[in-house]
Input
Amino acid sequence: MKKTICTLSIVLAGMLIPLFAETGLGAAFSYGLSNGANNMGGVLTLSTPAIPGTVQTLRLSFSGSDYISFGVTDDWWVVQEDLTGDLDFYIGLGFYSGFTMDDGDPDFQLGGRFPLGLTIMPLDFLELFLEVAPAIGLGFEPTVYFPAWDAQGALGFRLWF
Output
């Protein structure tokens, strides 16, 4: 029985490894200005060949006991060019969604974003990045409003597998 479980585990791992080939996983510090409200937080970032040319992020930020924010973005890098050596820049299109609870008042936003960024790979497996992304969308607090302006940014790293 143990041999069967070990064999199946090895076969399953062998089948899953290609799914994670050329996958970047990292973290960042993010900052956002949303309709005059500032929010800072940690970001988990993932770039995977499952959706080629895209970068997904999950953001969680909080301040004191009365503010919490959660967001998701997905960006497609339309232009990615070398500036010099290992330093690249990119321009993209993407979407974002976010939920904020501030002093008990919930707000949900959904919209588009336009990321502009710099990346450098000092090591074959390490990417450092700096990004600014103006964004516009719909807000729902408690009624629908437009435009929901946002200026999002992040400074972080990704490890490539």
Q: What stands out?
A: The CA atoms of residues 77 and 92 lie 4 Å apart. The first helix runs from residue 2 to 20. The first strand starts at residue 24 and ends at 34. The helical segments are 2-20.
